[in-house]
Inverse folding.
């Protein structure tokens, strides 16, 4: 077993124990033998049995009500094939029990099973499909209709064939507890299981095992205190506006079909909601957004900026965006919704039931905005990403990206010698303020040196232009390239040519 895998085994055992799943270990016995023994018991009892594995050797067990769920990868995706007697016959033309006879002939280097030298999978399958067993083959070898060359190979490696049969046969009599009732899932420790999944960042497994994500947060001492939250519907927009002036304001925007509707304001355990039906809603939004004294902490402020734009105002005083903070802390994550962040950062979501006795998730999510900021702000500072958040990410959230239907072409101007060694510090001319009219020049490997623009990398400039066709966009880029000069500069035309041909 590789050391990397061996180191994971104690963790896996602990995980299974926390989930109430019993594990079996028996010195001197292979895992396959334990599976085979339990499968034989299920077969005898008439129980339905499924073996989940990635080892094709287990296919020999797929009979008498036992099915093998064989995991494999197809086109980069994990798939599971279900094998029983019928499926094995359709794919191999033999019975499950005969598969091990096949392996005895062809061998398996990965399992140190020698087989018969010179007999491959196709020949082995053909022989067993016709004659079924090694005993039948060797007891009648001289009389069987087999090619002389194959017959000679079989004679020469008879001992290896029978050794391979022994090595490859899964035992069904391992000395283990065969009372199936002993293996019923029981005694799981939900809190330990969830906490372990969170610690290992295995978040997707939590719902798969039907675990409560709040159990992880309960492990943290400060989160053990139950919160009783209440909901108040705003009937006085002016009073709410006065309440948020000059304050740290934590609120959750309800976003439906890309549009902000209700705003849920969190004042400790009191949640105040204002909706478009509230009298003075638009006036409130405009004044609240424009008020810089109200320091705003929210989630997905990009949508708030869009709402502000629709209303003809500007969103000011934004001090925090949970989605952006979470992205900076874990840029490789694919999920930044609030419930996931609570799970990730150990914040318990308090339960809130409305007057109808049903959960109101919007209220619950609003209530954890501030606790999440308290957690993530510490981590942002520890990671020294405060300036990145405040000076770059938050201001960029105000940008509304617009897409053009025009074709775009970018021509890279590279240093002489690139992609191998190349000089640096060569002056670049032909650019006015780093750009050309009608063309965007992206600086990839440049720097200012003694008030001159010079090369400082292999890929120096990306000369980019738009056009109503790809051909016109390319022409603009190439025309601009001709105006830019630095010693040794070179670029390619073949890529653009291939693109034009593919675009015809």
């Amino acid at each position: 077993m590789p050391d990397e895998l061996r180191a994971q085994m104690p963790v896996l055992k602990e995980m299974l124990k926390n989930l109430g799943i019993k594990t079996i270990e028996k010195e001197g016995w292979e895992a396959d033998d334990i599976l085979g023994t339990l499968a034989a018991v299920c077969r005898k009892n008439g129980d339905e049995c499924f073996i989940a594995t990635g080892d094709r050797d287990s296919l020999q067990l797929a009979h008498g009500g036992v099915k093998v769920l064989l995991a494999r990868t197809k086109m980069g995706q994990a798939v599971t094939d279900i094998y029983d007697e019928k499926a094995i016959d359709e794919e191999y033309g033999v019975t499950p029990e005969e598969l091990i006879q096949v392996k005895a002939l062809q061998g398996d280097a990965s399992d140190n099973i020698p087989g018969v030298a010179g007999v491959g999978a196709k020949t082995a399958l053909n022989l067993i499909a016709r004659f079924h067993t090694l005993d039948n083959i060797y007891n009648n070898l001289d009389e069987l209709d087999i090619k002389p060359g194959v017959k000679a190979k079989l004679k020469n490696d008879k001992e290896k064939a029978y050794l391979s049969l022994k090595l490859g046969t899964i035992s069904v009599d391992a000395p283990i507890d065969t009372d199936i009732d002993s293996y019923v899932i029981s005694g799981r420790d939900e809190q330990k299981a969830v906490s372990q999944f969170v610690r290992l960042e295995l978040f997707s497994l939590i719902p798969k095992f039907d675990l409560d994500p709040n159990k992880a947060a309960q492990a943290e001492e400060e989160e053990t205190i139950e919160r009783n939250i209440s909901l108040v519907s705003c009937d006085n927009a002016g009073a709410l506006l006065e309440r948020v002036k000059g304050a740290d304001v934590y609120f959750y925007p309800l976003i439906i079909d890309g549009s902000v509707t209700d705003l849920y304001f969190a004042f400790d355990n009191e949640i105040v909601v204002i909706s478009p039906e509230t009298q003075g809603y638009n006036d409130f939004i405009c004044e609240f957004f424009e008020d810089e004294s109200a320091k705003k902490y929210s989630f997905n402020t990009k949508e708030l900026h869009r709402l502000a734009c629709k209303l003809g105002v500007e969103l000011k005083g934004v001090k925090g965006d949970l989605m952006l903070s979470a992205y900076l802390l874990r840029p490789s994550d694919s999920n930044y919704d609030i419930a996931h962040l609570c799970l990730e950062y150990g914040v318990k979501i308090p339960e809130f039931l409305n007057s109808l006795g049903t959960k109101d998730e919007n209220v619950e999510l609003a209530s954890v905005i501030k606790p999440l900021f308290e957690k993530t702000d510490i981590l942002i500072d520890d990671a020294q990403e405060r300036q990145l958040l405040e000076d770059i990410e938050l201001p960029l959230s105000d940008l509304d990206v617009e897409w053009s239907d025009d074709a775009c072409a970018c021509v890279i101007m590279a240093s002489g010698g690139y992609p191998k060694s190349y000089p640096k510090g060569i002056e670049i001319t032909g650019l006015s303020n780093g750009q050309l009219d009608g063309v965007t020049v992206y600086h990839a490997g440049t720097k200012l040196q003694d008030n001159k623009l010079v090369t400082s990398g292999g890929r120096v400039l990306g000369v980019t232009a738009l056009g109503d066709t790809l051909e016109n966009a390319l022409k603009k880029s190439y025309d601009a390239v001709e105006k830019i000069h630095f010693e040794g500069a070179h670029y390619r035309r073949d890529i653009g040519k291939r693109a034009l041909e593919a675009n015809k």
Notes: The radius of gyration is 34 Å. Residues 31-45 form the longest helix (15 residues). The chain has a mean pLDDT of 89.
